[in-house]
Amino acid sequence: MAMARRAVEGGSNAPQSRLAPAERREQIIEAASRVIAQNGFWGFAVRQVADECGLTEPAVIYHFKNKVGLLIAVLEHRDREDMTIFAHTLGVEAEDVWNGMVDFGIRELCAALVARNAAQPEMVRLYTVLQGESLNDHHPAYQYFQQREERVLDNMTRAAERDGIENPRREALAALSMMDGIQVRWLREPDAVDLVAEWNAYADSRWPRRD
């Protein structure tokens, strides 16, 4: 088994690539995140990810079974990281946010989302590219994005309900749509568009502060 694994990971690269399985998976996921963000799911090849890690294609497949498995691993990894940081920003437990146990308003919730996204443009690009691709129900991430959007909308709806907003679901959908739109402009012109400032301007016009 050890010999087979060394063969999979390549001859000249073997000495530098003796990582524990969890570390190897994380290295591959980080590389795949960058490659998919640039090329989308349909445009990236496992070979590109392998080259970034100094591995062979079989070494990548060994950890994720196939290209679809790698894509889902990237998305799930990012969700876990984002949820942890997002929850910390709000001063709550990540599990509570995941389960929809929110105790904050929609402005607070959205501000935390935007702040997190502003700190990781490449990851926002990754999700934006894949979200567009996965409008096709044959895309391997179609179900993932359907469920993810529903979860985000549910949390935003509960936050709007807490604020006493009339028709909270509609408010949540409008806020999410605006957020997606501003993020696309920001990704296209990062030097001209300040994501946080643009979002705050929208929030001020939509939900005036009551000081």
From TrEMBL:
InterPro entries: Homeodomain-like_sf, HTH-type_TetR-like_transc_reg, HTH_TetR, Tet_transcr_reg_TetR-rel_C_sf. Residues 1-21 are annotated as: Disordered. Residues 45-64 bind DNA. GO terms for molecular function: DNA-binding transcription factor activity; transcription cis-regulatory region binding. Residues 22-82 form the HTH tetR-type domain. Coiled coil: none annotated. Keywords: DNA-binding, Transcription, Transcription regulation. It comes from the Bacteria. Pfam families: TetR_N. This is TetR/AcrR family transcriptional regulator. It comes from Bifidobacterium scaligerum.
